[in-house]
Amino acid sequence: MKMKKDILNKEDIKKVMVTFYEKVKNDEVLGYFFTKVSPVNWEDHTNLLCDFWENVLFYTGNYEGNPLVTHRTVNAKYNTTKEHFDRWHILFDEVVDSLYSGTNATKMKEHAKSISTIMQQKM
Question: What is the 3-state secondary structure (H, E, C) of the chain?
Fold first, then answer.
């Protein structure tokens, strides 16, 4: 069995984001948010999230934004529940685990959970 490599650069992050959001778009629990509640320009969204995760993992300083403000805006249009966050985590962890293994892959999943916890508390 071949060992999976760790997330090493922005291209690896982009692979996670593209794969993840393909799942999300078609997900019966989450897809609605991205198609009806707050339709997304996928190229812009992917690039923004690549910058976000690249900053989280590699401290690039390339991300300027406030995810909490964005998610509060979505939540004001359609209530975001624990079920939505739980489903997001399941899909996110599945994608990361299917593609990568290592310190950065673990850091990405743990950071996603931390952000999610804070967002749920503040929304």
Answer: CCCCCCCCCHHHHHHHHHHHHHHHHCCCCCHHHHHHHCCCCHHHHHHHHHHHHHHHHHCCCCCCCCHHHHHHHHHHHCCCCHHHHHHHHHHHHHHHHHHCCCHHHHHHHHHHHHHHHHHHHHC
pTM reported for the whole predicted model? 0.90
Say if CB 52 and CB 67 are below 8 A apart: yes
Over residues 102-113, the mean pLDDT reads 97
CATH of domain 10-122: 1.10.490.10
